[in-house]
Write a structure and sequence with these properties.
Chain lengths: ~120, ~110
């Protein structure tokens, strides 16, 4: 079974600084997707960024970027120029690419605090 | 554009009472639909998913059940709630490639 591990329960960053959240996963599949979701205090789950395993290029979305290391099964999220609105719980998630109905497997989350 | 609606937002129910949470999706057809539960301070646990009308897959044995009576409607139910059913319930649907779930706003259930 696939597992997703987020080893940092909490992280802090100063406003305008850069922070990196770690995620590792375990799978025997070669074709899959990885995601980072953000859950602010409202608890609405918001998709931040996605990465397709067959693409070597790291995904970027404005201030958010990933470092995808397929061989190491590592998928970290870098947030640049951190803003107060980035404070939230961040979840890493894995989905295998075998058609419909496949579940997202989530990590346990990293609580990010942004300080003035 | 596609939207997902989930209700109610908050629910307080006594132990032993029934439960019905509803989720509907607009702007798409034949979506894959999912029910997740998030206990306080924990990650998300998949409860049920559905790839079509009447097709329900259960991930874990629960005091809960799910149904999909219409293409874009997904219902989470229980005949008798337990204290351990308390949590935050999220409905989600899955877009076409590239894969990504879109979540509803969630239901905070407290069983007392």
């Amino acid at each position: 079974a696939q597992t997703v591990t987020q080893s940092q329960p909490e992280m802090s960053v100063q406003e305008a600084e850069t922070v990196t959240l770690s995620c590792t996963y375990d799978t025997s599949e070669s074709d899959y997707y990885l995601f980072w979701y953000k859950q602010p205090p409202s608890r609405q789950m918001i998709l931040v960024i996605r990465q397709e395993a067959y693409k070597q290029q790291n995904a970027t979305e404005n201030r958010f970027s990933v470092n995808f290391q397929k061989a190491a099964k590592s998928f970290s999220l870098k947030i640049s120029d951190s803003q107060l609105g980035d404070a939230a719980m961040y979840f890493c998630a894995y989905r295998r690419n075998t058609g419909g109905g496949n579940k997202l497997t989530f990590g346990t989350g990293t609580q990010l605090k942004v300080e003035l | 554009s596609q939207t997902i609606h989930q209700w109610p937002a908050t629910l307080v129910q006594p132990v032993g009472s029934p439960l019905s949470l509803e989720c509907t999706v607009e702007g798409t057809s034949n979506p894959n639909l999912y029910w997740y539960r998030q206990a306080a301070g924990r990650g998300l646990q998949l409860l049920f998913y559905s790839v079509g009308i009447g097709q329900i897959s259960s991930e874990v044995p629960q005091n809960l059940s799910a149904s999909r009576p219409q293409d874009r409607q997904f219902i989470l139910s229980s005949k008798k709630l337990l204290l351990s059913d308390s949590g935050f319930y999220l409905c989600a649907w899955e877009a076409d490639r590239p894969y990504g779930y879109t979540f509803g706003s969630g239901t905070r259930l407290t069983v007392v």
